[in-house]
Design goal:
Layout (H helix, E strand, L loop, with lengths): L4 E5 L3 H13 L4 E5 L2 H10 L4 E4 L2 E2 L2 E2 H9 L6 E5 L4 H9 L4 E4 L4 H26 E3 L3 E4 L4 E4 L2 E2 L4 H12 L7 H9 L7 H15 L9 E4 L3 E4 L2 H4 L1
Parallel strand pairs: 1-2, 1-3, 3-6, 6-7
Antiparallel strand pairs: 4-5, 8-9, 9-10, 10-11, 12-13
GO molecular function, one term: phosphorelay response regulator activity
Organism: Thermoflavimicrobium daqui
Subcellular location: Cytoplasm
Length: 236
């Protein structure tokens, strides 16, 4: 969390000083400041911020407009920190893409706690996504998000269709699929007699992931039914 880059956008120098002190005391060492919306947008275009804190009332416009511009290009979490406290103000903030709306006056410690909570949510969600898209079967692993196949720790090149076919098997271990079903899932159309294409791709994948392709343990042919992927613990 100490590596998080935070941008504070406000033209109140006393408030910026207070927030900088509070955040640095909690271990945030990469806190940036801007006093105008234009400066904030310029900085956001150059720096991959993890969170942006906006005042609604800025010298060159309002924070709602800045938030709208940010949302055109980024999903970075955005907090509004402002003296505008009506329900309409808050609804407007959320409608343009804010993740939180903090009204002045506020307790700096509560502010930092909310920043920490938001960053933790983002980090936890990213870890969940990573866990969901990495399939580890012992001898080989497939990272669907990064498009990487590794066999015994080494990256192995494969075609887009091979990767998509293996990813489909990884998502459905121990399930048998006919060649026509696999063709429909991977190629996106009916096979119309092209089932042999699936067999060719499975043969190629076996050469890449199996220790002995002629005696496969992972990608198995179930006679008369189709193919299935057997996880390592079941394939020993």
């Amino acid at each position: 969390m100490n590596d998080a880059k935070i941008l504070l956008v406000d033209d109140d120098f006393d408030l910026l000083t207070l927030l900088l002190k509070a955040m640095r005391s909690e271990g945030f060492n990469h806190v940036y400041t801007a006093t105008t919306g234009q400066k904030a947008l310029e900085m956001i275009s150059r720096v991959p911020f993890n969170l942006v804190v906006l005042d609604v009332m800025l010298p060159d416009g309002n924070g709602y407009e800045v938030c709208t511009e940010i949302r055109k290009k980024s999903h970075v979490p955005i907090f509004f920190l402002t003296a505008r406290t009506t329900d309409l103000d808050q609804l407007t903030g959320y409608s343009v893409g804010a993740d939180d709306y903090i009204c002045k006056p506020f307790n700096p410690l509560i502010f930092v706690a909310r920043v920490k909570a938001q960053l933790k949510r983002v980090r936890d969600n990213r870890l969940k996504r990573d866990e969901m898209t990495i399939y580890d079967f012992g001898r080989f692993s497939l990272d669907e998000q990064r498009g990487v196949l590794k066999v015994i720790g080494q990256e192995i090149a494969c075609t887009a269709k091979e990767f998509k076919l293996l990813a489909f098997f990884c998502k459905h271990p121990n399930q048998i699929f006919s060649a026509s079903h696999l063709y429909r899932e991977v190629w996106g159309e009916e096979s119309l007699g092209l089932e042999n294409t699936v067999m060719v791709h499975i043969h190629s994948l076996r050469k890449k992931i199996e220790e002995n392709p002629s005696q496969p343990r992972y990608l198995l042919n179930i006679r008369g039914l189709g193919y299935k992927l057997v996880p390592l613990e079941n394939g020993r």
